[in-house]
Amino acid sequence: MIVHKRMELRVKEEEVRELKNHYQKVIQHLEKGFPLKVKVLEELKASLSRIVKESRQWQEVLKAINRSGDYYCLHLLHEDNEILNLPWSMVIDNITDQPLGSIRRLYLTKGIPDYFKEKGEDFPKAAAPLKVLMMISSLEDAEWKQRLSYEEEEFQILKAFEPLMQSWLVEVDFTEDGSLETLERKLKENQYHILHFSGHGVFVGKENIDFLVLEHPLTLKTHKVAGADFAEVVNCNPIYKVPMVVLSSCQTAQGSVEKGLRGVTNHLLRVGVPIVISMGMSIRDDYAAFFASGLYRRIGNKETVLDAFNEAVKELKEKEFQESVERGVTGVEPLNWIIPNLYLSQDPGAAALVDWKQPEKKLKYLSNRFIFEKDRLLLAHEEEYLFIGRRKEKAAMLKPFFNKTPVLLKGQGGVGKTAMAEHLVQRLIAKNPNTIPFVFNEKTKSIEEILNTMRDFLLKQRVMHVISGMSQFEKGMEKFLYLLSEVEKTYQPVFVFDNLESFQVEPGKEFSGEFSDIKEIIDYLCEREEFHVILTCRYPVADVKHIESFDLNQVGLNDFWKKCLYMDVGYIRIYLREKASFEKAKQGFLARPGLKYIDVVKLLHETFGGNYRALEFFDRSVKEEPHKIVNSLDSFEKFLESSKEITNEVKQKMGQDMLFSQLMALLEPQHRQVLDLLSHFRVPMREMAVGHANTGTQRGKTSGLAPCAGIFAPINVDRDFPGLGDKSGGLLCHPYCERFIEEF
Predict the structure, then answer these.
(1) Domain region containing 728
(2) E strand or H helix at 372
(3) Are residues 533 and 623 in the same domain?
(4) DSSP character for 88?
(5) In terms of domains, do 25 and 143 share one?
(6) How far, in whole angstroms, is CA 485 from its chain's centroid?
(7) Number of folded domains that form the chain
(8) How far apart are CA 193 and CA 461, in angstroms?
(9) Are strands 407-410 and 372-373 parallel, antiparallel or unpaired?
(10) pTM for the whole thing?
């Protein structure tokens, strides 16, 4: 039985000053970056312990816990968050000589008197599994001491939650950036159980100003958002309220973060968020991720928030103590375990997170709005689609794109140029719903197709006079300008020219003469800078001026990992889960398979060079023939061996992509034979091997070839294949390459 008891902290004015004075000494000590010595906390602990010992309310509860077998949820109330955030859990109980935080049958929760309700609103609760939305604000213009490592933070969270996601206890989703606009969109798309925010906050007590330092949606630079506005966005859905918000502060100027969180916490309680976990002071990033992982794991296992919080705090304390022992540090007080604070706006019995009775319901990963190219989607989306990552590139692109500077997205096949183009258009539509995209790619063979697309759009909008209007002009360019003026009267057009390499005479060279009319339109749009224009190409676009070029290189491990999770690549996680369940039933306890999902992700990322298209090929192949890998999930070694056949098939498909259909046509049969030979080597090989094996190539011409870990072998064509002249651009790679050389 849990006895719920409210306790308004009665602290005298002189005691408040004393406590805050002692607390500031602790903060100042931590600001210097030193481990917290025991003696630094002695004065604060002594003052808090004296207040508890002299309080009749405290003593009644502590005696009741000691006498009975009941559990007590003690809800501390005070109008000053700084008093609430004091380390009450470190107070020594004068009856048992234990810290309050170590008493198993005591739950310490906190709240603001005016914002606490005995019974909360009866909002619907979302079904399992536990769904966590991560929002990380890592500003591009922050000073190096204050800037969060976005990639490291994401990696730590993914790493910490890997066992939970692998066993399907938790689903983790990320906002694309740290902006308020993105948060609102995500909260309206899905019913999350927990919002986890990591970033900086500020509170100016004298001026009663509090705000979170979020990211501007276009530049990812500093965007100060009032705590009240943040709370209103969290409360944006009238039929569903996120039941728990975790505010995880990272390293910044000590004292400002916890005060900033103080204000935000109050605003969240004010709008009725049932549970808020915030940090009383800054907490180390790795400890914050460790605490959150333990908390969410237990909630995912159907434990109550009260038990989950207490046990996660206990684990955190043990972790910090063990690390001190391993480092040989003595006389240091574990501190991070007292930093998390559990705030409630209503009775904890009514603050359940998950409706475990409902059938499981997975997250829906959706994009803003699909962009159509004539009668089909710009991208061949699966049922569930989400634009992944690219936050740095996106931050650089959005501002010039919104300012109508034409942008060129350049990069190898499969890195997401078209996906980025679509995402930019989506962001433009979100800003101006009257935006109309006109998308053209390698299938567009003449200006007539462009004109027909624009004419058909206007006819659908019942602009019937365009037919007679076009008849007044003879030249294609004149007709285009007429249609453009008609579109502009009501709509904001955006033009996307995808896969421009199809129009080039040679990679990186000028447009072919047969596409001169299309080139004329592109030149006009780019030179005027009056319209939103996106070009994509694998190579430089030499003869188009007035554009800003952005290189999209291979994606990093974090984005690749999230992509694997979102697309549920090959259903491998399902097979791992089933195998774990089988082992549990067979052995009577949970025995996880030797293979971890992160091992699969890392292998695929290394094998495919972070290439999304190769990952999609792999996903499709495994889902069509699961028997190829299902029986190899006992160990990494088995999976590595059994996946070779599929990965080789993927490499061959990538080798048949358009890039190689152009480049391989430039080679003689004997040269192709050399490249095929090189693809089978994973170590540097002597020149005589190729010379002897390939009768069509002179010995010595392959000098210096070194396959890069079996991925690609750069060849100096001018030296090794002089017959090609300068057609190749100087460098070449073999047809099994997952990473293409940009100088083609």
Answers:
(1) 656-732
(2) strand 372-373
(3) no
(4) G
(5) no
(6) 40
(7) 5
(8) 43
(9) unpaired
(10) 0.61
